[in-house]
Specification:
heterodimer, A: mainly beta, four-stranded antiparallel sheet, 11 strands, B: mainly beta, six-stranded mixed sheet, five-stranded antiparallel sheet
Chain lengths: 110, 109
């Protein structure tokens, strides 16, 4: 079991560029979610999915899109990156209320 | 939205000392969770609490789900150097999970 995997580990973008952060899990969990972590603010929920084909917004969804075509994958898209999106992004999948986190993607937007 | 207040923000303790940290909220949660995060890693679940008043232990860690469902605490007994890290509380309600800002723990040998 690889658990939750995320790619890339690091990324630098210019303002206005687009990119997709990848997340995959091999635990057959229905619930997956994306968080961003900023200094002194803990983790904030961006989007989540309760199963393939179903997504919903979290606390800070603006500027991000998600889709869930399979149980395993839950990519996060930034359509036009902004410096305010500089952060560390964590993907998680859940069994019940217990979430398992990936190793994170550190994104810098210049 | 629901906000979690976690305290203290940071702690500097001697190896062997006990540690206590807590989280409070203005809203109720039906699950409280405590995570630890090491540098460059994602948070790892330490303890999950599902019922008001529940007291649960995991080795040297003990956590409680407050009776009002608006608070939780985590105790670490006899700290060791590998306890260093950031500890987060999290509250879960209706598919929404909120995290505290974290408690950064430093353990001096």
């Amino acid at each position: 079991n690889a658990g939750v995997t995320q790619t890339p580990k690091f990324q630098v973008l210019k303002t206005g560029q687009s990119m997709t952060l990848q997340c995959a899990q091999d635990m057959n969990h229905e619930y997956m979610s994306w968080y961003r972590q900023d200094p002194g603010m803990g983790l904030r929920l961006i989007h989540y999915s309760v199963g393939a084909g179903i997504t919903d917004q979290g606390e800070v969804p603006n500027g991000y899109n998600v889709s869930r075509s399979t149980t395993e994958d839950f990519p996060l898209r930034l359509l036009s990156a902004a410096p305010s999106q500089t952060s560390v992004y964590f993907c998680a999948s859940s069994w019940g209320n217990e979430q398992f986190f990936g190793p994170g993607t550190r994104l810098t937007v210049l | 939205g629901q906000q979690l207040n976690q305290s203290p923000q940071s702690m500097f303790i001697q190896e062997g000392e006990d540690v206590s940290m807590n989280c409070t909220s203005s809203s109720i949660f039906n699950t409280w969770l405590w995570y630890k995060q090491d540098p460059g890693e994602g948070p790892v679940l330490l303890i999950a609490l599902y019922k008001a008043g529940e007291l649960t232990s995991n080795g040297r860690l003990t956590a409680q789900f407050g009776i009002t469902r608006k608070d939780s605490f985590l105790n670490i007994s006899a700290s060791i150097p590998s306890d260093v890290g950031i500890y987060f509380c999290a509250g879960y309600f209706n598919n929404d999970m909120r995290f505290g800002a974290g408690t950064r723990l430093t353990v001096k040998p």
